Amino acid sequence: MTKIKIRILVLTIFVFAAKIDAQIKKTGVPFITNYSPKTYKAASENCDILQDSKGMMFFANHFGIMQFDGVRWHIVTQPENKSMVRSLAIDKKDKIYVGAQGDFGYANQETNGQYKYTSLVKLLPAKSRNFGDVSLTVVRGNEIIFFSSEGIFIYKNHKIKVIQSKAGFDSFFKLEDEIYILDNAKGLLKLKKDSLEEIPNTTQLAGLQIRNIFKTEQGLVLLTQKKGLFIFANSELKPFVTEADALLKKNQISIATQLSDGYIGIGTRQAGLVVMDSEGKLIQHINKQKGLQNEYVTNLKTDVEGNLWVTMKEGISLIQISSPLSKILDTANSETKIYCSQIYQNKLYIATDNGLFWLDWEAYKSGKSENVHFQPISGMSENVWNVGVFGNSLLAFEKNGIFEIKGNTAQLLAKTDGAWQGILIPNRPDLLLVGGYSGLYLLKKVNNSWVYQHQIKGFEESSRVIITDKQANIWIAHGYKGIFKINFNATFDAVSKVEFYNQEAGFPSSLFLNAFSINNQILFGTTKGVYKQDAKSKKMVQDDAFSKYLGLNNHIRLLKEDNQKNIWFVSGENTGKMTQTTGGKFEIEELPFRKLRYLYIPGFENIQTTTSGDVFFGTQDGLIHYNSTKTKKYQTKYKAVISEVKSIFPKDSLLFSSRYDILPTSSDAENDTEKKEMYFELPHANNALHFSFASLFYDEAEATKYEYWLEGFEPKWSEWNLQTEKEYTNLPENEYIFHVRAKNCYDIVSEEAVFKFEILPPWYRTSWAYLLYLVLFGVLIYTIIKYQKNVAEREREQLILSQEKELLKNRAELNEQKLALEQENMAIMRENLEATINLKNAKVASSTVNLIHLNEILLSIKELIGQIDKKNDSNVNFALLTKINRIIDHELQGDQHWNEFEEIFNQLHDNFMQRLKTSFPELTPRDMRLCAYLRMNFNTKEIAPLLGISVRGVEDTRYRIRKKLQLPSDTNITEFILNF
């Protein structure tokens, strides 16, 4: 009775858990994604898990705070003492509070994506700074509380209050808005404001090694490390007996968390994860054999999608506990490729490429999966293509023939050249038609057993797909040829009629055709939708009803009707269910089955439904189970994020990234909790950028597609693709906005992320450069104009010159003519002039001779008169003689004769007298005459009578003239006069 009461009490344990419409699946194992230390490239152990308001995941790793955006892992910051991070908390502004070993503080994200850690230990008094692991960090209103065994540190308004215990603290628990502390001596305490309040009668809890506490209206549920679960109410501690008691006590509880609808997730040290319901029934036990990387669970947290994140001593696992799909796993069997499944006599059979296997379905479904394993059917070890129930018999169709399954063995009914599947002939439940690799075979039921009869003649095509219609026609689909419609003779030993349909009959192609029977109607799957046969024309036409829901261009790979008239389909890569509503319309449900994309064995898509609502999908990744009572929200909003932006030229340099210690941080961002808009100005040399992006949606993250658009460079969004990086090179100067958004496996589009930046122009395209270009352009235009003017001027001058040359040429010709005439005249004149000159020379010579002769006579007379004795003469004689002497002197002067001589002399000797007088003005007329005689090359004796002086006088005169001419003593005066 006590046990019943306890179970009733815990029905209300998790009333504040996440709101999900249905319980965690008990059948099968949830999908698990494992992230090993090799994947995230950090320390193997992680101690805490956190998700911010955007959906970004953070983990308390021994190397620091580790971030995961769905694609990439980064250590974003470390404590100042570089110790391991043990706990995390986050406030409404996404400021992350960090508890480490011997340190605690907070981390802010700056505008460049970098996280900056600030230690708060400096606010502690020196005596309180010696502490170990901060195992829990809690945000409570406007204060943050850091818990360690040595003390509790309450941070508020940049001050820290320290609470300590003499015996020390064992563990800490946050229940709604209340915080409980387990003291090693006093038992359970409650933190009220800044002080601890003892809870009466809880000293008995000290030393229990409590790992978590859940609050109910009737009391507290305590989870201890080694002693299992307890209920504490009214000062009384009672065990809470569960189906997992032995498992939990043996393998020790390390952590526990509340899941949806009263479920509890318990992490152990040695046995992985245990999930129980509110009554203590075991729902799931997920260990290393079922997909976890490690048995030692260190923490558990659910994200906004309802997924469960599990950190372990080695690695991280994401368990999709909210999904209605799960895997039917058997740790003792490694079969994966499932061609068919079948429930028969409470046993689940699977046809694989390595034989036929079975397990106790009811036992597995009831949660006893650890002791339930797939058992092989002996006698079958090769490809089993199909298995089905015909009458009361279970038959398997294998590479070597047809088998009947009895117990754990297979009995060969017929050895054939391969068998694909079997089908009962309409109106003849005792006849079984089997399609083989090269024809058809007939089996007949005799004494409640199937007996092989013969191969049917007249048809030898591979018959993997066989269906029948209500007229008993047999339809066979050959994937590479077309559709055959056949009829048998009355004895069913030969084909009586064959009709063949391919592309010529109306199908869009002869390839990849399939045939299905839906609601007693024969339909055909093609690469362009669903077709049917027109009753009048017998041509194949598209079926309007199915085309409306499944489209006109999808490859219809499977249509299957269940016992509730729902139609299951595989169209293209999508799987779904069509449920008929009032008015003959259908509702399509596709989203829960998006995980099945790319998992089917091509050409062997198979879906098995049961009356109990179980649905099985045979895939390359094993058998997958679906339960329609388990629902999940698929329209959840999420964000795309830009993980990194780096310039790739001239060398890689990060512009934006949350990665630890790779970008400079600003010192003034310590108290800045407001995020500024990202905007970067980049020099033109950095016009090649590389973007890395991701989506904060972790369910089937590898199937998430992205589209991006560089506004300012591209006209529109890209096509959806799987790449998470994009590179742009040679971007011209402009302002740009890089947009990216994601579309998850459920076709939900994320909020977009943007990155704004500007590529600055190169120096030669700046405003100053353009101003310089304008000036240079003006100079160039001026130079061109000046040059053109100069060219025009030169051309004009050249034209004038050429005209002048022409004119000169003409004048030259005239001048030549005139010159010829003038030369003739000159010759005549030269002759006349020479005659005149000769005449004048003769005259000058004659005059000179006469003059010399006359002067000689006169000199003689003068000499005779000079000899008269003046004293003996009378006065009259003396006067007469004086007069004679004066006349003779006058004649000797010869001025008139000299003037005539000088005129003729200048004409003959190029104005010698004038040039000489101009050059030497000090010369006297006597000197000039002497020079003229020297020019005529007369000697001293010849000159003396001409001047009327003695030879000695001539010598003296020559001497005076030499001085006046300033001639050196070694210069001959006669040569100088001749060359002057």
From TrEMBL:
The keyword RNA-binding does not apply. Pfam families: Y_Y_Y. SMART domains: HTH_LUXR. Gene3D superfamilies: Immunoglobulins, Winged helix-like DNA-binding domain superfamily/Winged helix DNA-binding domain, YVTN repeat-like/Quinoprotein amine dehydrogenase. Keywords: Coiled coil, Membrane, Phosphoprotein, Transmembrane, Transmembrane helix. The keyword Acetylation does not apply. Residues 804-831 form a coiled coil. GO terms for biological process: regulation of DNA-templated transcription. It comes from the Bacteria. The chain crosses the membrane at residues 767-785. SUPFAM superfamilies: C-terminal effector domain of the bipartite response regulators, Calcium-dependent phosphotriesterase. Residues 920-977 form the HTH luxR-type domain. InterPro entries: Ig-like_fold, Sig_transdc_resp-reg_C-effctor, Tscrpt_reg_LuxR_C, WD40/YVTN_repeat-like_dom_sf, WH-like_DNA-bd_sf, Y_Y_Y. One of its GO terms (molecular function) is phosphorelay sensor kinase activity. PANTHER family: HYBRID SIGNAL TRANSDUCTION HISTIDINE KINASE C, TWO-COMPONENT HISTIDINE KINASE. This is ABC transporter substrate-binding protein. It comes from Flavobacterium hercynium.
